[in-house]
Automatic annotation (TrEMBL), chains A, B, C:
Transmembrane residue ranges: 6-23, 30-51, 57-78, 90-110, 116-137, 149-168, 174-196
Protein name: Trimeric intracellular cation channel family protein
Compartments it resides in: Cell membrane
Principal location: membrane
Originating species: Albidovulum sediminicola
InterPro entries: Gly_transporter
Keywords of this entry: Cell membrane, Membrane, Transmembrane, Transmembrane helix
Taxonomy, superkingdom: Bacteria
Family: Belongs to the UPF0126 family.
Matches recorded under PANTHER family: INNER MEMBRANE PROTEIN, UPF0126 INNER MEMBRANE PROTEIN YADS-RELATED
Length: 206, 206, 206
């Protein structure tokens, strides 16, 4: 298995866990869990593959991805009641999923020989769109656009770090740098409140 | 006309009726009806064709599909006020649309020679995504994810039945089995409350 | 630069301004602005290119589009507080964006040799879907489906005007007619309340 496949598998598994957790908040049945899990898990990578005209789409080429997503949803269906706070676990699994999905998108775009702008966008899109679909479909406030947190910024910084790192090291190592930068920024935001200045409709008065 | 085209036409027509009914709840004008109807009617099949790289997309190859969706939206615009309960009619038309869209997706994936996992997912996606787009865009609670009803489950069971049936009968007959299984499960859920156990955040106390 | 590229650039720039304005209402940071701006700016054209199997997608072929969207989001981030009414500016920029995106979609479909139905739908889809994604993702009431306004109708009439005009003049001139018809109808709706009859659940009593 290549590193890119491994990143796709990790991203599918962890995003599927988050999708199933959101399904548990909506009190769906086990097939509903699998549906939301599969949508979340494959959404970002499917958009990536369709936009880059990568044929076949990753989970059509290798249906093991679907099996992983279904297995993840079953795990959550039978164990989520053991969790103290599902929202907390959801937020942290989502952070972990972001940190593997961004290098998965970045790596595919690099391997196909795209320029920096497309690589950056594919990293951000692969990382962010699955979770965005999950939250829009289940009518949750999207984690991706939560005010005062680093999310898209963490994805963007990770993809940018991969581009820089790939100048001085092999692509595989650069993708690990990407994962680390994304995770550190997202985790720092959750733990320590790291954020960029947000827009305010009026400048602060003196 | 092949059976697959017939299923696509039926799915477009009935899903367009449901889209127009949702547009009537939002009090749109007749062009708004046609827009929501066309989005609902073509959404699932478009995702199917894009993911399976089926070129051209079904309604680009044969614009008669668009004419059917527009005609359906006009019918609803001028007659919906005659209905006793639009929500009830919407729910049942949606069930019927699901029962033709699932075999439409299943059949295309089978004909292209895909394996069981992709066939199952294409059946579910073709059946469920048009209605999901309709409800998300019009800010309705998605029928697809309504708690305590069989919806994704009916689609999944129908696609699975088609896979099994195709081992012992021609594909056309297997798709009719698929439609029947989907419709019976969805209708049984609406009429008799059939459902799978839903997730509860705590196990029942003794 | 061809006229079609110019229309795509104008559409990306103005839709990005509207996306950034919606991001300002959600009080996102500057990367969040760029994310919503890029989604809004590229959404409609990406759907168009994927459905028409136009490879590569316009902004993958020419990353200058992304630079334009990012620049537009920075402009809004640092200047939106100067506006008297962001909603008013948003609505008018959105009308302008619609009036360049509809000919952008219409023109591409015409150039690829598609028939009237596909040209009409690609005009409407390219014009409407980016703004629809923006509003759905940011949980705003979609401008596209606002009751009692011409929006989809303006897009549809513009695309239809292009089809008729192209019979008697060069395609470039026909696309300018398309832009003018779309803008006049949308602006007339905003200024003078032009609208089509909307659906009412009961006919007026005598």
């Amino acid at each position: 298995m290549t590193l890119l496949e491994l990143l796709d598998y990790a991203s599918v598994f962890v995003f599927a866990l988050t999708g199933a957790l959101v399904a548990s908040r909506a009190q769906l049945d086990i097939v509903g869990f699998a549906f939301v899990a599969a949508l979340t898990a494959t959404g970002g990578g499917t958009v990536r593959d369709v936009i880059l005209d990568r044929n076949p789409v990753f989970w059509v080429a290798e249906p093991g991805f679907i099996a992983v997503a279904v297995a993840a949803s079953a795990v959550v269906f039978f164990s989520a009641h053991l969790l103290e706070s599902r929202l907390r676990v959801l937020t942290w699994l989502d952070a972990l999923a972001l940190a593997v999905a961004v290098p998965a998108g970045t790596g595919v775009a690099m391997t196909l020989g795209h320029g920096a702008a497309v690589v950056l966008l594919m990293g951000v899109a692969t990382g962010c769109l699955g979770g965005l679909m999950r939250d829009v479909v289940c009518n949750e406030v999207p984690l991706v656009l939560k005010q005062g947190e680093l999310y898209v910024t963490a994805a963007f910084a990770g993809a940018a770090a991969a581009l820089v790192a790939a100048q001085v090291m092999p692509q595989g190592a650069a993708l690990l740098v990407c994962a680390a930068v994304t995770l550190v920024l997202r985790a720092g935001s959750l733990l320590f409140g790291w954020q960029l200045p947000v827009y305010r409709s009026r400048p602060p008065r003196r």
